[in-house]
Design brief:
Layout (H helix, E strand, L loop, with lengths): L1 H10 L11 E12 L17 E16 L2 E14 L7 E14 L3 E13 L12 E16 L2 E14 L9 E13 L5 E13 L3 E3 L2 E3 L3 E15 L2 E14 L7 E12 L5 E13 L7 E14 L4 E14 L13 E16 L2 E13 L9 E13 L1
Antiparallel strand pairs: 1-2, 1-20, 2-3, 3-4, 4-5, 5-6, 6-7, 7-8, 8-9, 9-12, 10-11, 12-13, 13-14, 14-15, 15-16, 16-17, 17-18, 18-19, 19-20
Length: 392
């Protein structure tokens, strides 16, 4: 807590001068306590230490540079994370992003960008105390043509690559690609209603050994979804990206799945100081496990933000999700319940004594009802975090 106190003392009595309208450096220090860092089950034996404390020090810079009708943005962050007990997990995190928002004339626009992120893989589905860094690289491009005041067509493509440090996790090394094409109707009110066709492809570098069977996990996923932005009142906004999706695997096609798929988000701000955001989803997601590597997740969340004053803001959220896992190769039990359930809640308080300084305190609690058939266990975890951020 000493770095937090020192930083707060240094900047509580005066403003931090802004270096530039284009370049914005920032630093942050934080402290986190987690009473079940590795997300171990309650009945785990032979475990001497479940809790740990983490210290995080971050430095970064944001760049926002308009050039005529073009806009260039970039963010670079490096983080040093150290653990009191599990010090073999200490790591240097990296997070870089660059984007060009381009525009040609009055009718053509889009984006071109890339990201790079290196961080510690969450312990949700793999509970080893060996360090396992995950590196993600992503490149994307999009473009749109407003061929009529009320109509716009757009297209986009992206590629993401994931690699893992531990050899036992390298079955999750993968590359995913996305191509999409859509058309939108743009209402005079600013609302939008559209239709988008998307195709995902996933390619895994290494086959998994499941029940003695070498399993190739490559897949293709086709989607047709409504793409809606609706503002029924001045305080309510609804976003929808939902429709039909079909996922097909190159091998062991009993894992294929299709049906309703998507996400709906509703934001409601009944007053200028209070805002609620609710979401519901049914989507495919990757699983970072050595047994299964994807699931169909259904759930919902609710978050609230309260601006208590000009300098103090409180927030809270709850989340519930059920993950339905793929059928296991070699399994003869068609009635197996291959699912688990996750519940979580957070609460936090943020104080900004001046515009360039922000102090935050938060708490969290997570609980999972696991499924031993596919290697997920019951666990409970809770913790607190304190953080201070300074922007120059």
């Amino acid at each position: 807590m000493l770095p937090l106190a020192c930083a707060a003392l240094m900047y509580s009595n005066g403003a931090v001068a802004q270096i530039s309208q284009t370049i914005h450096p920032f630093v942050s220090v934080g402290y986190t306590y987690d009473d079940n860092l590795l997300r171990l089950p309650d009945q785990a034996v032979g475990v001497e230490q479940r809790s740990d404390r983490m210290t995080q020090a971050l430095a970064g810079v944001q760049i926002d540079r308009p050039v005529g009708r073009q806009n260039f943005t970039a963010t670079a962050k490096v983080t040093r994370v150290t653990f009191d007990h599990y010090d073999q997990l200490d790591y240097n995190g990296k997070d870089f992003k660059a984007e060009w928002a381009w525009r040609v004339g009055n009718y053509f626009d889009g984006t071109l960008g890339a990201t790079y992120e290196q961080t510690l893989t969450p312990f949700t589905d793999y509970h080893s105390d060996e360090r396992n860094l995950r590196t993600q690289r992503r490149e994307y491009v999009s473009g749109g043509w407003r061929f009529h005041p009320r109509w716009r067509v757009r297209t986009g493509a992206e590629r993401s690559r994931y690699t893992y440090e531990l050899s036992v996790q390298r079955g999750n090394n993968r590359e995913t690609t996305l191509a999409e094409l859509g058309v939108d109707y743009l209402a005079p009110s600013g609302d939008r209603i559209g239709l988008v066709a998307r195709q995902f492809e996933g390619s895994y570098r290494n086959a998994r050994n499941v029940n003695g069977v070498l399993l190739q996990d490559d897949y293709k996923q086709d989607e047709l979804k409504a793409n809606i932005l609706w503002t029924p009142t001045g305080v309510t906004q609804v976003q929808v990206l939902a429709g039909y999706a079909r996922r097909r695997h190159d091998a062991f096609t009993a894992r294929d799945s299709s049906g309703a798929n998507g996400r709906i988000t509703v934001a409601w701000a009944p007053t200028g100081k209070l805002k609620f955001t609710g979401a519901a989803w049914r989507e495919f997601a990757a699983v970072e496990s050595s047994v299964v590597n994807n699931s169909l997740n259904s759930g919902g969340s609710l978050a609230a933000t309260w601006s208590i004053s000009a300098k103090v803001q409180a927030n809270a959220s709850v989340r519930r999700e059920t993950r339905e896992f793929e059928r296991l190769a070699g399994s003869t039990l068609a009635s197996d319940d291959l699912s688990d359930r996750i519940r979580g809640a957070t609460v936090g308080l943020t104080y900004a004594p001046i515009r360039s300084v922000q102090l935050s305190l938060s708490g969290f609690a997570d609980r999972r009802s696991g499924n031993p058939i596919i290697g997920t266990s019951d666990y409970k975890a809770k913790g607190v975090a304190a953080n201070v951020t300074l922007q120059f």
